[in-house]
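Morning run. Coffee first, then this:
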Amino acid sequence: MKGRVLLVNPWIYDFAAYDLWLQPLGLLYIAAVLRDAGYQVQYLDCLDRHHPALLARLGGAAPKSTPYGTGKFYKTILDKPPLLRDVPRRYGRYGLPLDIFDDDLARLERPDVVLVTSGMTYWYPGPFEAIRRIKSRFPGVPVILGGIYATLCHAHATAHSGADVVIAGEGELAALQWVNRLTGHADDPLPAYATLDDLPYPAHDLRRRQDAVVINTSRGCPMHCTYCASSLLHPAGFRQRNPLAVVAEIRWWHTRYGTGDIVFYDDALLVRAPVHMHVILDEIIRQGVRCRFHTPNGMHARLIDAPLAAKMHDAGFKTVRMSLETVNPARRHETGPKVSQEDVRRAIGHLKRAGFSGRDIGVYILMGLPDQPLQEVLDSIEFVHACGALVYLTLYSPIPGTAEWQKAVQEGHIAADADPLLHNNTIYPMLRGTCSEAECQHVKDVALEGNKRIV
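And here it is:
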């Protein structure tokens, strides 16, 4: 054994959070790479809804979940940070109570290095809390921070997180290189991962349950929408895996661990569909893989045709999501013209004729875009409901490094060095005066009422 490495998935600090198969895929890939390199890996998940100590505290019952394994996180209500004190919502920490995390730390053997991941930029109090507690328990052990926040707010993370090292971008090789250096193996050669399929499968086996598993068939996105950070998180560009290798991984989790739900977290699942997704679907059907499949990140409606919809239904897709953003064609053109209303209407028709119900199909609508009137959001909701699909509202906030971020800074809507707490998409439309809390709630109510009528 070359050394012992602890990997930590931290808490979420926010006004709202939900476990929509929220698994730290990047951290699990790093765990697999470290194991292959000869390190012993330990793993703590602060978002583990099935932790025995948490369930015992809640009376012993299993956490309430949907049939596909999603559900609510345990929430501890906290005082709002001063920057957010005027927001009329309850702030909290989602995930394990702190004492359960501390007890888990106390049972571990002292690691040589600790890796902590990070999610949304405004969730940074979670990684900060984890780093403080790790350093208190294991003084002198170096801590590496990576993930989305560490990438998009690298300077803020370096200055304030307490981590000894902050890495940006895809982390497999960078994390291994740093761990080698910090454990005295700096001269060890790094593996050559020429393609995504050269990576080992992510270490989902470290998680307490594998009934639902998140996978990627690609990284990045070729679309370059002005509000999206995909190209910043994946600077190597858009890459797809061999579709047969994807099916082999699905079979691996299904046969070895009994996984029943496979969740695609790709940013561009349907790009080059004839040589990628069609092949995956054909093989799933041919091999008789009996899983349920989900697409929570949303697919490009323009790429859903009748043959693809039929294969998705036959393969076992259950949660089908796509993006429209808005019915305003000028705004769609400005942000990235990847889909039209007719594309969405046509895709919903193909999916329904293939056998999906309206409640199987969800369409993402953006609310709170710069200078976006609420009536535009209401018109977008009405259009999706008229097509016979569910509406999922996505609240907009500018992501550091994107074109929309630069525009927001130039127009004075947010400071370039603003505290990342102010990136929060729950509050950003209210902070810049786009809409009030009451107006936002009205739009949400309209979407929910319309969703009730979808069959």
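The longest strand covers residues 317-325. Good start to the day.
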